[in-house]
Amino acid sequence: MKIIKIIFLLSILGMLSCKKNGENKPLTLQDKISIRDSIAAEKISQMANDQTIKDTISGVWKAGYSHDYELFSITLENTKNRDSIKGTYRFTLQDKPEEGIITGIISQGKAIIEFYNPSNPSAHKGKAILSDWTVDYKEMNWELIKPSEQPSIPETCIFHKPVPLKSIGRPFMGKSSRNTK
Fold first, then answer.
1. Alpha helical stretches, state H, 57-127
2. Superkingdom of this entry's organism (predicted)?
3. Is residue 106 assigned to a domain?
């Protein structure tokens, strides 16, 4: 039994010393290039994602109906430098509408926004994150970070951009002017 414990202890010590030696191994030139390239690719991907968000975030976004609210919509637009956004929100609960101002920035695949009701300038601003856009950038998640003094704003919801309905076929023009015989 004692021999089994000693063998077990030696094998564990051997594994620990192997792991320690592997950690101190200097990186090869190939490893350094690979790491540099993956970091660059990640930065380029993040910049492209941010650019797509900036290109698609402007417009009206609506949240689906919930038992928590009757209507929740935001209207956003880019500012001149395109790193910031501004807009408005409209929230209705039990037929009591609330409207307010939104300001925020786009960074690292997210929009971090502050919102407040201008009729109560001394009120605390709320904060939320808009993130997790769908592949076509037509839906995004709302996640409340810090509530405003209006506790009715939902903690989470999904906003979508309403798609205008397209007419199918030709419009009805009334009676045909062709003679039919």
1. none
2. Bacteria
3. yes
Residue 120 in domain: yes
Domain span at 93: 54-160
CATH number of the domain to which 98 belongs: 2.40.128.20
With a CB cutoff of 8 Å and minimum separation 6, the contacts of 77 are 58, 59, 85, 86, 87
pTM for the complete prediction?
Answer: 0.64
Residue 23, C-beta contacts closer than 8 angstroms, at least 6 positions apart: none
- pLDDT tens across 79-105, in order? 877 778 999 998 887 778 888 899 999
CA distance 128 to 141: 10
pLDDT surpassing 90 at residue 130: yes
Kind plus residue range of the DSSP H or E element containing 56: helix 29-56
Rounded distance, CA 131 to CA 54, Å?
12
Rounded to the nearest 5 degrees, what angle is found at the Cα of 79, between the Cα atoms of 140 and 108? Answer: 45
- Indicate the DSSP class of residue 147: -
Question: Which residue, chain included where needed, has tokens 């790193």?
Answer: 83
